[in-house]
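Entry 12.
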Amino acid sequence: SDQTLFMPYLGSLTLTSSFNVGATINSMRASYDNEFIATGRTVGTGQELRIFSVDETAFTLTSTYAAGLADTVNSVAWHPSSYYLAVGMDSTSGVDIYLWNPSNWTLSLTHSFTFAQNVTAVAFSPDGDYLAIAGGTATSDFAVRRFGNGMIGGTASPVTIPGSGPTVSNNAISWKSTSDYVVIGITTGNTTSNKVQVYSFNPSTLALTTDSGYGSAVGSSATDCTEVSWRPDEAEIAAGFNGTLSVTQRARVFRHAPGTLIELTNSYVDETTTVQSMRWGPQGDLLAVGLTTGACAIYAYLENGGSLVRLASVDPGTQVNAIGWS
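Predicted 3D structure (tokens):
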């Protein structure tokens, strides 16, 4: 339930600020200019959505705004070049779009978009023109919608995710930097429901192009993909998995090319604990990983060979449901 800020220093992580939001944090994202951090938490006594300001000199957090939405917030996403904020919720109201005013610290609702099912993941395309939305019910839809002036519009028809009863994990959507491919991570489903799925996108078509049979390969639908993150400006996709099966590689890296998804076995770090969250750094050379055991680890990615090397780790004392960079 803590919002925690760490600063990496050449192989170490130093705690600089923390804030207790009073409930489980499901999602956390920094604004495009790194001035603010938005968090979404489980429903409780209000304040499901909170915004913090970040002092990048003192490395401290200040709670600047809290809103009671009466619904669990599963996913938050800032627009890549403005202060629009997409909020995916545990209700049929679907997705709310807000505009943050950094001058007076106020938040204004600009659009409520009905998705007809719980929304577990939202993500803006890198060019900011589209919003990817994924549902969290047994008949999950995945859609990409046009975005402009604070409004969600129409574009490619939603697709039904293949497999038996699949849902998308919280925050498990990530775009390629070129805005023409998007990856999702699948949780509930049978053994035919591959857990890492890549879709191609243009303004009129959203189509599954390639996927990973990780769930089938280990022989059980009990393995879920808990998080996905596309490496900035590159072809690699990091994916985290849960620990319901006795396999050792919970953190994995794939390399995508049109029609193919190749697992980079050199990236194995023998992680046996459930990976709850993971995110590439802005330059793509570092990967942050959060675990259910309460550990947070930073890995360096060595492009020549596709391997991961642990640089630092810290135990914040609680499960790391969301992780990000500022």
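Annotation: Confidence is low (pLDDT under 50) at residues 5-10, 215-220. The chain is about 0% helix and 55% strand.
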